[in-house]
Amino acid sequence: MAKPAQGAKYRGSIHDFPDFDPGQDAEALYTAMKGFGSDKEAILELITSRSNKQRQEICQSYKSLYGKDLMADLKSEISGDLARLILGLMMPPAHYDAKQLKKAMEGAGTDEKTLIEILATRTNAEIRAICEAYKEDYHKSLEDALSSDTSGHFKRILISLATGNREEGGEDRDQAREDAQVAAEILEIADKPSGDKTSLETRFMTILCTRSYQHLRRVFQEFVKMTNYDVEHTIKKEMSGDVRDAFVAIVQSVKNKPLFFADKLYKSMKGAGTDEKTLTRIMISRSEIDLLNIRREFIEKYDKSLHQAIEGDTSGDFLKALLAICGGED
């Protein structure tokens, strides 16, 4: 599939609501929650049609008008999947991501897929904001949390990504050839003596975690010229476990980020059950960034629209809210 052109326009499905009046919206939400049984449809219609920045203003107005916390009131009125979706939409994006990372590390097992999905796809600015939010909300640095919850090479990849220190510039052709050479060596020498393998793995990690997206695209092209193989295919074949998953996610994100998320959304709804958490997390976190692009990739690859997939897989108010975020049929 064609890659988005350099500087392609990424577009979200949710924008600032015109003629926005936070006081009026706060009042409407208060009314929707007053008395016995709340008007869930009114709540979800209002919240899904405002931008995140506007939702923050509504929270402020609500507090000054009623001396109450809107999040707490919403929490007491809605539950289950709908609550997870609506409350997620109400959080500032960096705090929302920080919370998802925290949840992925809570309890007995670690949810590596979520850690990878977030850390491998966010921009430098987004990562830095997440780190600040994490510290503010949980009084611990994200790096420390990752350190105590993951291990080995996988841990080093995540910590590297969590610095938000990826280069931002263009490509350097000579460097790209060298980088492709390192990639070719590491992916071919799975059977070489282990001494140089560790340092090569570290160099490969540095390339994937710190080079700019534009530069990496060139590296992947040089890799194909050099080996006749696609770098993603080769990683899948030669590596295993969380390290493989992390590297594959970075490569897919560099090649075509909206397609990466389209695939994840498709998988969250494929088969018998629905993975509501992944579905919710991606719909919320991409709603103002590139959800329209994700929709386009989805229908091109799967021959059905994201709208249709959601309709066939969820129900009730949760379905209505998801379709409102989706923003239309393709």
TrEMBL record:
The keyword Metal-binding does not apply. It is found in: Cytoplasm; Melanosome. Keywords: Annexin, Calcium, Calcium/phospholipid-binding, Cytoplasm, Repeat. InterPro entries: Annexin, Annexin_repeat, Annexin_repeat_CS, Annexin_sf, ANX6. Its main location: cytoplasm. GO terms for cellular component: chromaffin granule membrane; melanosome; mitochondrion; nucleus; plasma membrane. May associate with CD21. May regulate the release of Ca(2+) from intracellular stores. A pair of annexin repeats may form one binding site for calcium and phospholipid. Belongs to the annexin family. This is Annexin. It comes from Suricata suricatta (Meerkat). The gene is ANXA6.
